[in-house]
Design goal:
Blueprint: H1 16-37, H2 46-62, E1 68-74, E2 80-85
Antiparallel strand pairs: 1-2
Helix pairs in contact: 1-2
């Protein structure tokens, strides 16, 4: 696992490239929502965009498809690390 652990007092953040990747994922999901709803005026709402993105990543992962969806993961002890791929699986790189 390519994880970057940090001190518990620090807040870990995605870098610009990782944040851009997530923007790309969320934009793609939003386009899908507008197409499925047949509503080109659908307003951006992360309450459903984020949920759909997570669900899609989970389904793809269950089917063995590698999904790059960077996230800051916080452990129960408060320590954090970044996962580049949904579920932490980076096999095949």
């Amino acid at each position: 696992m390519d994880a970057k652990k940090i001190n518990q007092e620090e807040e870990l953040e995605l870098n610009d490239e990782q944040a851009a990747r997530n923007d790309e994922v969320y934009s793609g999901v939003f386009d899908l929502c507008r197409m499925l709803s047949e509503n080109p005026e659908l307003e951006w709402d992360m309450s459903f965009i984020g949920e759909i993105a997570d669900c899609a990543a989970s389904i793809l992962g269950r089917h063995g498809i590698r999904v790059r969806f960077p996230a800051v993961v916080t452990n129960e002890d408060g320590s954090q690390y970044i996962e580049e791929y949904y579920g932490g699986d980076e096999s095949g790189e």
